[in-house]
Amino acid sequence: MLTVSDLSLQYGKRILFDEVNLQFTRGNCYGVIGANGAGKSTFLKILSGEIAPNGGHVSLEPNNRMAVLSQNHFAFEEYDVLTTVIMGHKEMYDIMVEKDAIYMNPDATEAEGMHAANLENEFGEMGGWTAESDAAELLSILGVKEDLHYKQMKELTGSEKVKVLLAQALFGDPDLLLLDEPTNDLDAETVTWLADFLADFKNTVIVVSHDRYFLDMVCTHVVDIDYQKIRIFTGNYTFWYETSQMMSRQMANKNKKTEAKRQELIEFIQRFSANASKSRQATSRKKALEKLNIEDIQPSSRKYPFIHFKPERKPGGQILKVEHLGVKNLEGGWFFKDVNFTMNTGDKIALLSREPGAINAFFEVLAGKIQPTTGTIEYGQTITVEYLPNDNEEFFKDEHDLDLMNWLSQYSENKDEQFIRGFLGRMLFSGEEVYKQSSVLSGGEKVRCMMAKIMLNHPNFLLLDEPTNHLDLESITVLNKAVSEFEGNLIFTSHDHQLMQTGANRVLEISPNGMIDSLLEFDDYLRSERIKEQREALYQGATV
Known about the structure:
The chain is an alpha/beta fold.
């Protein structure tokens, strides 16, 4: 058990949280949520001891071991991969280093030899004799190939390092696991594996994530940082979101009697509890929900932007036809080739590739930003396309440094000041914020501005390259709803699993050796054994 007592943290006049008292118990997974800047990562750093609070204390039950996912991807550059993973169990690693130093010392005394023997016993009791094979197995499961296990960390790519550091945190079955954005830079298959692993994990997990699918899969409780307080609520993210929204509606409905509101909540909890059987955490979550006191539920102070894509005209019969499309990289190899598909009315395609550069190039070609190496692209005459690039910096360069009113006005037919101000207000820019210079916006603010630009043009075809990057959970939730309700056509890719699952009705995977075109839902696509075989063949050079 981890206990937080009278915890307070303040930076100058700004109070992040005050007099926080919490208990985290074995067998539960806690998802930490909060608006951007609320202090989610800071809270984890306090729990790990990296940051000292202004007041209060954190205590871990005696003889319990805490493991933390490292955020410094360059901290282990001079160590080999297997050693880096084993370092996740610090006590075991320290014993290993100490005993090996004695064994390697030709002048070691008899007393030192006896000490090494005692260390060997401790090492074995901790599982040290199988540490290397255990670490290797964990790495292989996470997709780090065996030929990398003895290389130094500095020789690995960024995504490979992320997987090694994740293996480090998971190694040795820690009693408490702290994970800050563990799904960042992970492919969809690895995220699914991690979700399954944590759903079966018997100890305590505290995780910060913007991935709603991941939070829903693993969390038994939500830790909400709001109103300068931190509270624990039973259920996963979707349950917290739906009940919070319901409470907000109920507070606004002053005419509805208290008992009727209570009954509405009870019925919702019962429905959600019954549906919990879809999750790997079904039993524990169902029991937790059954014990829930509805007086514990509170509305959130979060603000949600308005995102809604409404086409100006319906697309005609011909949408998009792509034939023999291919693009080469700067080295002369193929990002992708032999891509052939036709889009029909209502098609919403989730795009996949194991090579991120291939996805960027694919969107750039479809958006007309670059020319393909081979093949043709033909849009229907009624199709109006809007493109959200992964990198939007060209729209916010210093030489185009406009305030937000003028920035958005350049993309709007309606130049009326009140119209532009109202539109910015929907995107959470209010008051004097509308005169903020576009070049100083945060990543999330820039994406919201790009969403506003798209909405003003009313397209019937969207190209969205990682639209959830930099967005908070509130914006991602609204975007997901907008994509699901969009009545036009769509090709998109995202690290947000739930968006891929609920926003797409078709999956397209591209590679240097061809493509896979599937009408399976995203989850079914990832879990299908037949598709797995096709994917492996595809990336090994076979034509599927």
